[in-house]
Amino acid sequence: MESILTLFRVPELRKRFMFTLAMIGVYRLGSHIPISGVDLQALQGLFNQGGLLGFVDLFSGGALGRFSIFALGILPFINASIIMQMLTFIWPKLKELAEEGASGHKQISQYTRYLTVILAFIQGIVMSIGFRNFVLPDVHFVFFVFYAVVGLVAGSVLVMWLSEIMTENGIGNGASLLIFVGIISQLPFFIKNTVVLLSGGASRVGVIAMVVVLLVMIVSIVFMQEAQRRVQVQYAKRVIGRKMYGGQNTYIPLKLIQGGVLPIIFASALMQFPLVISEYSGVQVLKDFFSTYYRYDGVLYNGVLCFLIFFFTYFYTAISFNPKDLADNIKKHGGFILGVRPGRPTEEYIEKIVTRLTLVGASFLAFVALVPTIASNVTQVTSFQGLGGTAMLIIVGVALDFVKQVETFLLNRRYEGLIE
To answer: Who contacts 280 (Cβ-Cβ below 8 Å, separation ≥6)?
Structure first.
């Protein structure tokens, strides 16, 4: 709480916070600007039915249900980032670029932007054609598809730009914050649906049980996100000139979930891409398959989601954590892990620990993603459908990351003050 209050005390931090709020305001404003030519009342009635479309609409903050210029949201950018990170692993030229440092990462970011435009263009065409039954009678359909695609692609590029400048000039990760805001904006609708459900004769015990489950999930997510395995390291004493260095004990904090909330965001974004394509493609076979076997509360959907959570948890850990570099740094500074020889044995020891931690972390993420669906089926309280474990993980994870960014900024500021 002290860190949050500091947002308004430190001028530079307050400036960054206000900039973040301003960009969020622009994002929310854009999500309420519809693309003309669509019967919005009929479209809103379709999304109010819940199900697959309601779940997809959750991550756009309701922009998809209003067919606004931000209907595609940040998902094309996230999908492009996933594809580029995978290609960096398997494509030698991109791997060389990634190893060049800042200039290479800048070039990869540019490629990611180009790919975002391509994905937004594909999704925009499919979505515009999929909304053909909601186009007003006096609007020419071909003309509608043209300006709708232009508007959707332009909106997606603008959202991508907002996320990047929020990351650079604001606080926290811009893309994660935009998804966070989109989910938060839908919470009043879940509360309203719960009140309607209670007034319709739903069991109060079931509603209370569902709320308790959600609160327990929040506590457990915070606990697991902050959990870490501390590997003890001993540094040998060294005499340089007339001074003695080293000799102290310290530890390496290895987080239980190295990727934080990113694996669940990547998995959810990848799950929604085929769902949107199938829903708006107009191919009845695909729509029947997804509506019958690939429901967000079904076995197949959740099975694939769990697989993707495991995959992205391990994948992000592999690209963000290098046991070899850590082992070399420990050896270079005269350190060693008790009972483990420096060099290759230390690398294998750390890699073994990280692999086990990642397994536990991925299992927890998958478990949390399934809990709300199971609880909803048991309690028969359907008003929270859509606000699943995925959304809860994103909300809590992004909030924790925001607080950590504030604390890191304050810590750096203290050190800079000492140096000056």
So the answer is: 126, 127, 129, 130, 131
Structure tokens at 349: 């020891």
CA 384 to chain centre: 20
- Transcribe 373-398 into DSSP letters: HHHHHHH---TTTT--HHHHHHHHHH
Tell whether the torsion through CA atoms of 85, 88, 89 and 95 is positive or negative.
negative
* Helices 204-226 + 389-419 axis angle, to 10: 40
The residue type of 297 is D
Q: What is the pTM of this model?
A: 0.80
For each of the chain's 420 residues, which pLDDT tens digit applies?
666 677 777 888 888 889 999 999 999 999 899 888 888 887 777 676 655 566 667 777 778 888 899 988 888 898 898 888 888 878 888 888 887 877 888 888 999 999 999 999 988 888 888 778 888 888 888 898 899 999 999 999 999 999 999 999 988 888 889 988 888 888 887 788 778 777 777 677 878 888 888 888 888 888 888 888 888 888 776 656 566 555 577 788 888 887 777 788 778 777 776 766 666 666 667 767 766 666 666 777 788 888 888 988 888 888 778 888 888 888 887 788 878 888 888 888 989 999 999 999 889 888 888 887 788 777 777 666 666 677 888 888 888 888 888 888 877 766 554 444
